[in-house]
Amino acid sequence: MSTHRSPDNSEWIDPATLPGFDEALSAAEATTMPPAAPPRKPRHTRKPRGFDAVGGMEDAKAEMRLALIEPLLDPEMAEHYGIEPGGRILLWGPPGCGKTIFARAAAEEARGATFLPIKVSDILGPHIGEDERNMTEIFRQARDQAPSVLFFDEIDALSPRRNDPHVWEAERRLTNSLLQELDGATNSRARVAVIGATNQPWLMDSAVRRAGRFDRLLYVGLPDLAARKAIWSLLVRSLPLGPDVCTATLAEVSAGLSGAEIAEAARRVRGIAFAEARARASVVDVRMLDFLLALRVTHPRSRTWLDEVPEEFARGESGVRHDRLAISRRAQQTRAERIEAAIDQWATGEVAGWEDPIGMAGLLSAAPIADDETHRPS
Asked: How far apart are CA 309 and CA 199, in angstroms?
């Protein structure tokens, strides 16, 4: 703190002790310093639950409600119509399309039901007979905690075809154990719903898909336009968005991508925006260009899976035919052209005078999406 001498130079005094100092200082600051801008706070939104957390899939949601959720919520009414208050649904489809998320959301919709997610590692053990004991114990827990929803991820690994010569005896016993427990859980008093998820239902023992077991198959495929728009809305809800961001356009140029691939593009955008914000030392809006550049280098990876689907499954499921068209060479070339056109439109309209502290402009010259393979006709 600076000091001054008193009028008679006899002592040093602190100016802050003089009468009226605080008022004079406040007046000076008010006339010489602009008011400080309040810090920009991140957008906090309530995390959606249940089917609100799943973009699109309205038909699948309706079927899940009717076959599994509503009977579990109102078992007395279900009994009047001969409906078991614990359905069996097998979710199948390409990897990355949200089967696990969908199953968890269904359990949250069944308010009050206990959700028991089961992985393959929860069943398989190193000792003889341990697999069957684990299977029995899991179903016992589900009955004790009823109403409950049991979810088996990668259930094909727990129910291999018993007539396959390459299947070991221990694997056959495991399939038998699953069949017995499914039959035991089909009881109006059990109130145990069972959901299985697999990418390859054709590898499962056919008895597992018989009536009374997993006789209802629900295809969870690539998201359609409405689903992609809902997915994008969920992914960007907490981001600081620029005025040019349009989720409808993002949905259109994401055709053929799975939900996981769309989420991957969104994560890439978050990283780009965060790096720029760090370089500028302030929060910046996420631009439409950021999303377009991320989608330009995000490629659909479901072609191999769709090629492997046996015709007996493809014939009875229109979703497989739809997905094969969505990732066809023509469809993906159209998607690439739309992305390039959108990038050009953004660049010619807004890029003039744009500062580029992290070198994002180099991505504008990146190779567009390549899709050279011709997909077989469905």
From this structure: 10
Q: What is the DSSP pairing of strand 4-5 with strand 12-13?
A: antiparallel
Adjacent-strand bridge partners of 219? 92
Q: Which residues pair with 117 in a beta bridge?
A: 151
- Contact yes or no for 85/71 (Cβ under 8 A): yes
Two tokens, residue 251 = 């949905």
- The whole-angstrom separation of Cα 130 and Cα 123 is 8
SS3 73: helix
Query: Phi-psi category of 196—alpha, beta or left, where left has phi over 0 and alpha has psi -120 to 50?
Result: beta
Across 35-44, 193-202, 241-250, least confident range: 35-44
**Residues 69-114: tens digit of each pLDDT:** 998 888 889 888 888 777 889 999 999 998 999 999 998 898 878 9
SS3 13: strand
- Which tokens in the block code for residue 135? 């299977």
Domains of the chain (ranges; CATH) run 50-219 (3.40.50.300), 225-365 (1.10.8.60)
pTM for the full predicted model: 0.76
Residue 20: which pLDDT band, with cuts at 50, 70 and 90? low
Long-range contacts of 161-165 (CB under 8 A, 24+ apart): 161/203, 161/204, 161/205, 161/206, 162/205, 162/207
Q: Tens digit of pLDDT for each residue in 316-342?
A: 788 898 899 889 988 999 999 999 988
Question: Would the pLDDT of 141 be above 90?
Answer: yes
Cβ atoms of 72 and 85 closer than 8 Å = yes
DSSP 258: -
Q: Give Cα 232 to chain centroid, integer Å.
A: 10
**Residue 228, exposed/middle/buried by CB under 10 A (0-12, 13-18, 19+)?**
buried
- Six-digit token string for 71: 């009977």
